[in-house]
Each structure stands twice: as structure tokens, then as C-alpha cells.
């Protein structure tokens, strides 16, 4: 991860660290590594989304472990310096700054984080479509609903999950959502 961190410009690395801290503090549902990766690539850096996701997971683990152990800024920087593969100087400076500014807030919310082992729902989009034909059937003309769920997994990575439903399946899906809404109103 240290080799890939060297590639990331300091401003993008700082933005990634800020997003991770905000996620650990439950201020945002996750880190949109796809969008950040695209912006980094546009700036001329050759990095792929898998590598950026690994860096995000490593930093998330670093910050949450430091919070769990109530490390001071100097203890964290000393620990980073004693690692097998040393981080670039700009990365250590960013981590020092971010931890110094916002590290205490994570320590307070870390107990709540330990209870969250499932992903978090971020957004849902849907669209209605009609299949007109296929290579085996000339005239289908059946409607369907495509649903795209945006979720943040426990590490904070935001992903989209898409699926299609027939109209009867969508009606059942909708009925279940109405049931959930009515139950939530009673709470």
C-alpha cells in the first residue's frame, strides 16, 4: 500500500483521510472511491480503483485502531515510523494533521462503530422499462422495473447493486416497504 500511496498527490490523500474520518464519525455513509479514483486518474496519476480501495481500507483500519487504543498524535506517528514499509513523508504529514484535528472525535464514536457489522443504505433509484424483443422472441412487450441500490459496506466503500423485477415482484416489494413504513411510524 505504501508504494501506491506514493503515487497519490497530497491533496487527494488528504481528502481520502478526511472522508475516512467522517465515515468513522458517522457523518457520511461511506467513501466514494470510484469518484475519487476517477478524479485522481484525471489528474494524471495511474492508479486503479482496487488499489485505492485497499488504501482506504488500510487507513480506516489505522484510524479505528488508533482510536480504540486512544493513541496520541505522536504515538500514532511513531507507530507509523516503525512499520515494515515506511510511508512517504507527505502521507505521514497528512495523517498527523488529520489525526491531530479530528482523532479525538473517533474515540468517542468507536464503541458505536463496533456494533455495525452490516452495510448502510445510501440511496435507491428505479426506472420502468419495457422489453420489446430478443433474439429468441420477436415481440416480448413486457414491463419490468430496474432498481439500483447504493450501499456502503462496513469498511465504508460505496457500491451500487442493481436488479430487475417483474411488475408483480415490484408490487410485492412496494407492499413490503409500506409495511416497514407503517411499523416505523409506531416506533
Uncertain segments are 109-116
H/E topology pattern: HHHHHHEEEH
Distance between the termini: 45 Å
Strand ordering within the main sheet: 1-2-3
Round the mean pLDDT to the nearest integer and report it: 82
Task: Give a short account of the largest sheet.
Answer: 3 strands, antiparallel
Number of domains: 2
Question: How would you describe the shape?
Answer: elongated
* Tally of individual helices: 7
Radius of gyration: 22 Å
Helical fraction equals: 55-70%
Q: In what range is the share of β-strand residues? A: 15-25%
Protein name: COMM domain-containing protein 6
Domain COMM: 120-187
InterPro entries: COMM, COMMD4/6/7/8
Family: Belongs to the COMM domain-containing protein 6 family.
Structural features, described:
By secondary structure, the protein is an alpha+beta fold. It has 2 domains: 108 residues, no CATH class; 68 residues, Nuclear Transport Factor 2, Chain: A (Roll). Helix content is 57%, strand content 17%. A 3-stranded antiparallel β-sheet has the order 1-2-3.
